[in-house]
């Protein structure tokens, strides 16, 4: 069951209820690592996305998991910098920040803060007004 709310705090609570944080193996990023990623990628992450990264980016719900950040800043499947590089080589717009990859398709934060779905054939008309709505409708909705 997924939430009707559009607040990231409620999403974080629901994800932690569905996937016990104590059982997750991938470490969560801290503010310093997030700042390194912002500098390396050229993106300024929204406060909601930073909170999402620091709280639940290592969770696995349904069939999707968010892109992760690591100290090496790359080198593993599902890591943000690698996904940006792969997405751009496939035509992903340079100003779209991928947050989740699904078999060569990407959910991305656009400059306007909306979440857009880009499939391997290019942009689609699927959008969500914000990260919390996307997490509720797509990530939790697919659980």
Summarize the structure.
The chain has 143 residues and is α+β, with helices and mostly antiparallel strands. It has 5 helices and 4 strands, in the order H-H-H-H-E-E-E-E-H. It has a single domain (8-140), classed as SMI1/KNR4-like (3-Layer(aba) Sandwich), CATH 3.40.1580.
Q: How would you explain this protein's 3D organization?
A:
With 143 residues, the chain is of the alpha+beta class. The chain has one domain (8-140): SMI1/KNR4-like (3-Layer(aba) Sandwich), CATH 3.40.1580.10. 36% of the residues lie in helices and 16% in strands. The chain has a four-stranded antiparallel β-sheet. Helix 1 (8-18) packs parallel to helix 3 and helix 1 (8-18) runs parallel beside helix 5 (131-140). The longest helix has 11 residues, at 8-18. 28% of the residues are buried.
CATH fold-type name: SMI1/KNR4-like
In total, the number of domains comes to 1
**Kindly state the mean pLDDT as a whole number?**
92
CATH class: Alpha Beta
- Unreliable spans: 1-5
* Number of beta strands: 4
> Helical region count?
5
CATH superfamily name?
Answer: SMI1/KNR4-like
The span between the termini is 8 Å
Q: Could you tell me the strand content as a percent range?
A: 15-25%
Task: Give me the strand/helix succession.
Answer: HHHHEEEEH
Helical/strand content category: alpha+beta
Q: Please state the CA-atom Rg, rounded to the nearest Å.
A: 14 Å
User: Strand order, biggest sheet?
Assistant: 1-2-3-4
Helix content: 25-40%
**Major sheet characteristics:** 4 strands, antiparallel
